[in-house]
Design brief:
single chain
């Protein structure tokens, strides 16, 4: 029996896929001058700034709308509290329940609106 020669090659080192290639990927980047790059950066900066302002204004409008809703709810609760105060019962046995309802309305006004 003859022994077969088994050739074992050393394992190839795996390439680091995160490594940057030395050559630039785009020929466009190579052909642009520094002044053109500065102009492109300024244009990008103005677009980003305009987008940020647009988002800021949208969020501000949403907050204003929510504040208006909360103010309306607060006014309604204050009206309920005032009418409840005016309708104080004459019967001393109903005052405890009336006071609890008033306290609940005040608590809802103070802590329920958020």
């Amino acid at each position: 029996a003859t022994e077969a020669k088994i050739r074992t090659e050393p394992p190839k080192p795996q390439e680091n896929r995160l490594e940057r290639k030395s050559a630039q990927s785009s020929p466009i980047v190579q052909d642009t001058s520094i002044s053109d790059k500065k102009i492109a950066v300024r244009l990008f900066e103005t677009k980003v700034r305009a987008l940020a302002e647009k988002i800021h204004h949208q969020e501000l409008e949403n907050i204003k709308q929510k504040m208006g809703e909360y103010m309306e709810l607060s006014k309604n609760l204050l009206n309920q509290i005032e009418t409840h105060k005016e309708n104080k019962p004459f019967n001393p046995f109903k005052i405890k329940a009336w006071t609890k309802e008033l306290d609940d309305l005040v608590h809802k006004h103070d802590n329920g609106i958020k």
